[in-house]
């Protein structure tokens, strides 16, 4: 297939691109290379892909890419992705995630494609208490500027399918983790801080729950949906591996052989969603996909990867320290 992957230099997008190239697909990537984008993630496949550094809100340039690449499938990951940043400044989230998605959908519609995979998130459903799970039929009740921007992008995909017949398939995935995740997200923050003997900020009382999905599983789930899913449908992709944040931090500290005293409870994230949980039975029944990696296996592989790639993580620190100063300011 001729694929155009937006956000392919990001954490999940690059995992998808590596898999797609491995399967023999013809891949072009468009990425703005924001602070979160990094071509190092694509080093091993760079000779096999075409890369365009571009902002997806730039319609003229996106049209030019479509004219050159003539994609059959658009795989849309590009987004501002960090909830805490959206609380500090929502503007880039609305711009890239809403306006950018609209541009990609619109150009796809006018140029004509076979499938548009719209990457969404479990956060569009809002949060849960200790019980219950979200199905694809659950109402959307997003709570942060990030999740509102993602819900808008998700609904734009619905509108382009319903109103214009663009073949859009939507994937709503749970929290990803694994190699190459930018070290502002929880699991790499724990690893980075613990490796440097620094305090690990645990928001609130650490009881908030996330469903952790190994990134290679997420990428294979998206590939399965592209190959076997149906346009107009939504597929939840999760792992059933739910863990309170404090348990995640303890698991990482145990693997690293570090003291649990490194955990420090800090001021809670405003509007902090308590729990996400996905019912992924539809993607299993209709597409034949389930996650393969247990949390125990995935977290061990992840910690090992970071320990052997500390130079990559350290490179990001100058930028991060500025952000952390703002993020944790009272
Ligand atoms: P990421 O922040 O690691 O990567 C995002 C990529 O998009 C970066 O390479 C960045 O340069 C690029 N980008 C941002 N704005 C752009 C723009 N205007 N034009 C072109 N490129 C732009 O994010 P991620 O964690 O890999 O997430 C990828 C997608 O999956 C996002 O849509 C996110 O909302 C969604 N998602 C993420 C998770 C998760 O746990 N990380 C879970 C569910 C869904
Ligand atoms: O659920 C899918 C979503 O998962 C994606 O759509 C987002 O793009 C992705 O960033 C992620 O959002 P979260 O807010 O769940 O992930 P984050 O890694 O920021 O936080 C995970 C949990 O850990 C959350 O309950 C907040 C907490 N946390 C986070 C950080 C960064 C801490 O306690 N301390 C921290 O330093």
Could you walk me through the main structural features you see in this protein, from its secondary elements to its overall organization?
By secondary structure, the protein is an alpha/beta fold. It has 2 domains: 2-173 and 215-237, 3-Layer(aba) Sandwich (Rossmann fold); 177-210 and 240-267 and 293-321, UDP-galactose 4-epimerase, domain 1. The protein has 12 helices and 12 strands. The protein has helices spanning 11-22, 59-69, 83-88, 91-111, 145-164, 186-195, 215-228, 245-256, 281-287, 295-307, 310-315, 317-327, and strands at residues 2-6, 26-31, 50-53, 73-76, 115-121, 168-173, 175-177, 200-203, 209-214, 234-237, 242-244, 263-266. The protein has a 7-stranded parallel sheet, with helices on both faces. A 3-stranded mixed sheet has the order 7-9-11. α5 (145-164) links the parallel β5 (115-121) and β6. α4 runs parallel beside α5, α6 runs parallel beside α8 (245-256) and α8 packs across α10. The protein is globular and about 55 Å long. The structure holds nicotinamide-adenine-dinucleotide and 2'deoxy-thymidine-5'-diphospho-alpha-D-glucose. Residues 6-7, 9-13, 31-34, 36-37, 55-57, 77-81, 96, 100, 119, 121, 150, 173, 175-176, 182 line the site of nicotinamide-adenine-dinucleotide.
């Amino acid at each position: 297939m001729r694929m155009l992957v937006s956000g392919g230099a990001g954490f999940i997008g690059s995992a998808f691109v590596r898999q797609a190239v491995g399967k023999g697909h013809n891949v072009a990537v468009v990425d703005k290379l924001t602070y979160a984008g990094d071509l190092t993630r694509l080093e091993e496949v760079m000779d096999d892909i075409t890369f365009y550094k571009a902002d997806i809100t730039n319609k003229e340039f996106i049209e030019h890419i479509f004219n050159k690449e003539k994609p059959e499938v658009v795989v849309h990951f590009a987004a501002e992705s960090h909830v805490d940043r959206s609380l500090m400044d929502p503007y880039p989230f609305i711009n890239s995630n809403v306006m950018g998605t609209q541009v990609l959908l619109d150009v796809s519609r006018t140029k004509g494609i076979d499938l548009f995979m719209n990457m969404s998130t479990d956060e569009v459903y809002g949060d849960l208490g200790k019980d219950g799970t979200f199905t694809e039929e659950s109402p959307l009740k997003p709570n942060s500027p990030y999740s509102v921007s993602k819900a808008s992008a998700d609904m734009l995909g619905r509108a382009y399918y319903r109103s214009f017949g663009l073949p859009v398939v939507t994937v709503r995935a749970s929290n990803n983790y694994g190699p190459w995740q930018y070290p502002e997200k929880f699991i790499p923050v724990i690893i980075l801080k613990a490796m440097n003997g620094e305090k690990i900020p645990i928001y609130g009382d650490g009881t908030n729950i996330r469903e952790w999905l190994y990134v290679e599983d997420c990428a294979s789930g998206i590939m399965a949906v592209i190959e076997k899913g149906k346009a107009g449908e939504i597929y939840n992709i999760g792992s059933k591996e739910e863990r309170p944040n404090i348990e995640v931090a303890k698991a990482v500290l145990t693997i690293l052989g570090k003291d649990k005293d490194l955990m420090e409870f800090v001021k809670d994230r405003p509007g902090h969603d308590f729990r996400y949980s996905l019912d992924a039975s539809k993607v299993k029944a209709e597409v034949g996909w389930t996650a393969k990696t247990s949390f125990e296996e995935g977290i061990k592989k992840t910690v090992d990867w970071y320990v052997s790639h500390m130079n990559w993580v350290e490179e990001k620190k100058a930028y991060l320290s500025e952000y952390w100063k703002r993020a944790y300011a009272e």
